[in-house]
Design brief:
By secondary structure, the protein is mainly α.
Length: 404
């Protein structure tokens, strides 16, 4: 036992270590602000774990992942000092973080407030990236939020496969879905508001704290809109101002309704959208065929959904033409924004299963492919397909527990 393991043994198992190792590196290559993984090592020991918390513990291979970050300080480190009424330690920790990681604010009269505002900005950019690539963190409590605006603590995470804003990869979050994909911006804001409350002894003027929270909202909106425009291949989103007629809003609403009408793989849909011809003379079949592999129901395109999709694609193509952007430029923008390869949970599970037998070939292959997530890599096309049906409900392939 260790004094830091909440009465447990302080050891990690292979499956959770592999997931953290692979995901932090995959996120780095996707361009998402993240902590990193230096190494993954098997310990040669057996560790007893109850994976499903159902009273059936079993022995599993042990492993250690070495994580790397400029700092592992989290929002919760400040909250606990307030809860324990230790204002001197609170100031000491804040000064340490500013000195070592935000030195530009060290001598400013409003340094603490400016520091908090920058934390809000960085967090907004990070979460916008999560939304761009369809990543769901799964456990967005304040102790899993980095003070540097980096993704930290890869536990029950997942990528959207079927586009479902209410999806959570965390089995213990299934009832309330607090940490689901669509809630992530709001939860990040809530977490920052908890940090703001913890920093009140240092930032007495609440208006300055509110300025930081407002910065989060503005930065997230601006960044997410820029990313969405790039995902769709538009120069920018044309959103209606106050009192103006709707511009792109209806087209966007129609898109997200379509993505949820039939089970649609988010990664495949947006990646394939770049190949949809946008010239006015394109036939229905030519226009719709690049998207066929994004739908989990192979019969979806023989139902009324087909015509709804074609109607949307016609409006989308018209919008692209109105933009007047060169096709090659547009497609290049889309392909560097919409990854072809993401770390799907079933792929991670297959790598874990192989490693348990001493075979590291799939792990090495996945790691090599995920270092170039925006490249075509035709020799690895099998890793850029929908989740297979056998993996829909298999343990480790979709939702995960906190011990996964």
């Amino acid at each position: 036992r260790t004094p830091y393991s909440r009465t447990a043994d302080g050891r990690a198992v292979l499956r959770s270590s592999v997931r953290e190792f692979m995901c932090s590196e995959a996120m780095h290559w996707l361009g998402v602000p993240t902590t990193r993984a230096l190494s993954l090592a098997a310990t040669g020991e057996s560790v007893i774990r109850d994976m499903f918390y159902d009273g059936h513990p079993a022995a599993e291979p042990g492993a250690i992942v070495c994580r790397v970050a400029p700092s592992f300080v989290r929002f919760g480190n400040f909250e606990i000092l307030v809860a324990q009424q230790e204002p001197d330690l609170l100031k000491q920790l804040a000064d340490y973080v500013i000195t070592h990681h935000y030195p530009q604010f060290a001598t400013s009269p409003d340094g603490y407030a400016q520091w908090f505002e920058e934390i809000c900005r960085r967090t907004a950019v990070m979460v916008a990236h999560w939304m761009r690539v369809g990543f769901v963190h799964g456990v967005m409590n304040t102790d899993n939020m980095s003070i540097l605006g980096l993704t930290i603590d890869y536990g029950p995470y997942g990528w959207l496969e079927g586009f479902e804003p209410g999806w959570t990869p965390n089995t213990t979050d299934a009832a309330g879905r607090r940490y689901c994909y669509g809630n992530q911006p709001q939860i990040a804001h809530w977490n920052l508001s908890r940090l703001a409350r913890a920093l009140q002894p240092l930032i007495v003027d609440e208006a300055l704290l509110q300025r930081g929270l407002d910065r989060f909202g503005q930065t997230f909106n601006d960044t997410a809109q820029r990313m969405l425009a790039d995902k769709l291949g538009w120069r920018e989103l044309e959103l209606a101002g106050e009192g103006e007629a709707p511009r792109d809003e209806q087209l966007l609403i129609g898109l997200f309704e379509l993505l949820q009408q039939t089970e649609t793989d988010m990664t495949l849909f947006f990646r394939s959208l770049a190949r949809v011809p946008v010239d006015a003379e394109a036939s229905d079949e030519v226009r719709i065929s690049p998207l066929a592999n994004a739908f989990y129901d192979d019969a979806a395109l023989s139902t009324p959904f087909r015509q709804q999709l074609l109607d949307w694609l016609a409006k989308y193509a018209e919008r692209v033409r109105r933009d007047g952007q060169d096709d090659a430029v547009r497609m290049a923008t889309m392909n560097r924004t919409n990854p072809k390869y993401v770390l799907r949970n079933y792929q991670a599970q297959l790598a874990i299963d192989a490693l348990a037998t001493g075979d590291d070939a799939l792990l090495k292959r996945l790691m090599a492919v995920l270092q170039r997530p925006y490249d075509e890599q035709p020799e690895h096309e099998d890793l850029a397909t929908r989740r297979p049906e056998w993996a829909r409900n298999r343990a480790g392939c979709s939702a995960l527990s906190c011990s996964s």
